[in-house]
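Structure tokens please, single chain.
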Amino acid sequence: MRAVIQRVSQASVSIEGISSASIGKGLLILLGIESEDTHEDVEWLAGKIARLRIFDDSDGVMNLDLGSVSGDAIVVSQFTLFASTKKGNRPSYIRAARPEIAIPLYEAFVNRFEHLLAKKVGTGSFGAMMEVALVNDGPVTILMDTKDKE
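Here you go.
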């Protein structure tokens, strides 16, 4: 499971011109799910992101997590995070999980993240063509992969 976590001052996701989610200060999480991912990956990644201290404290040091700043979050599924570009010029997405595996894990991630934050999380729509807009704050962008736990 891979995530691109972006600290934002605002973000939104729309589907066919209709807003699906919109937030102010918080995190935009692009989530890619691989065929071998399990609920253990969901638990680890959701917990790690919920505790990630990338918001400034009163001294301007990144020392606060999302809950500490009363921030919001949007989670958007993005199978292209598993693109392979080793051969040719057209990416291969063979490592991305098929919907029958990915959808339950995506939903489990959103549910677990909501539980950890004790608040609702915005989402896109799995498999839909979405328009994602954001103002990256910092900019701060963090990459995480459950296969590279640190």
